[in-house]
Amino acid sequence: MTQRNESLMDKRKIACFLLCTAFLASACDKPADLPATAALENTTQVSMLFYEEQEAGTDLYPVRVLVSPEFLRLDDGYAESDFVLLDRHEKTIFSVSHEDGSIMVIENSPNDATLPADINLTVIRTPDKEAPMIAGNQPEHLQYLANGETCFQSVTVSGVLETAVAAMAEFAELLADRQLNNMQAVPLNMQTPCFLSRYAYAPAWHLQYGLPLQEWDSSGYKKSLVDFSDDEAMPLTLFKLPAGYARFSPGQ
């Protein structure tokens, strides 16, 4: 095993240990009754996840995920940041820019296209037996392949924050439908089996195995879960769109 792979494995073990500790702490500290703030008007109970992400050529940046039965919100970790809001009932995505005073609207555009017959998806699952259990489940290292080529990898645990995982899958599938309906804008040399499976035909491929603790690929993309709570009281205003902002659809 190379020094780089050993380092990556050590980081995965540390991340799993910290997440396990956080999960146990939240379970032990949670009172028998809901927090008093939950009874206050203008708040709602959510699942909250904090990720750190990085893409090729960028520094690490924070991504907060807030999930309620009605909404999913992605932001930079504070109330005043730009944000993306998924209305789970209307199946509509809103991307809010405060600087521009605008809201990009991605409406539900169902597409029943199926995975092309010449693309074969496989997953190699390896239990990470050295990682601590999380909620009684063993994290797994998963390798996702299209036609034998590794597309990306993850460390995932099942049975944790399942409502949040379902919402993230809904979000990915809506974006994929949008992509499928706009494939003419994707250069042919980019339409590889990995691209098509990951962003168009099987966007929630990895989420069927549970909550991603880490994700990475060969392009320089990586994503790590650094904290979470499955019962957090948050202001309802975080799930409201600002009034007076101009709305437009992609391509306009």
Plain-language structure description:
With 252 residues, the protein is of the alpha+beta class. The protein has one domain (3-248): outer membrane lipoprotein receptor (LolB), chain A, CATH 2.50.20. It is 22% helix and 34% strand. It has a 12-stranded mixed beta sheet with strand order 7-8-9-10-11-1-2-3-4-5-6-12. β8 (140-146) and β9 form a beta hairpin. The model is unreliable at 1-9 and 24-34 (pLDDT under 50).
Please tell me the CATH architecture by its name.
Answer: Clam
Number of helices: 3
Major sheet: 12 strands, mixed
Category by helix and strand content:
alpha+beta
* Low-pLDDT segments: 1-9, 24-34
Strand portion, in percent? 25-35%
Oligomeric state of this protein: single chain
Helix percent band: 10-25%
Q: Please, what is the average pLDDT?
A: 87
Please identify the top-level CATH class: Mainly Beta
Assigned CATH superfamily? Lipoprotein localisation LolA/LolB/LppX
The CATH topology label is: outer membrane lipoprotein receptor (LolB), chain A
Q: Kindly report the spatial arrangement of strands forming the biggest sheet.
A: 7-8-9-10-11-1-2-3-4-5-6-12
Number of domains: 1
**Roughly how many Å apart are the termini?**
50 Å
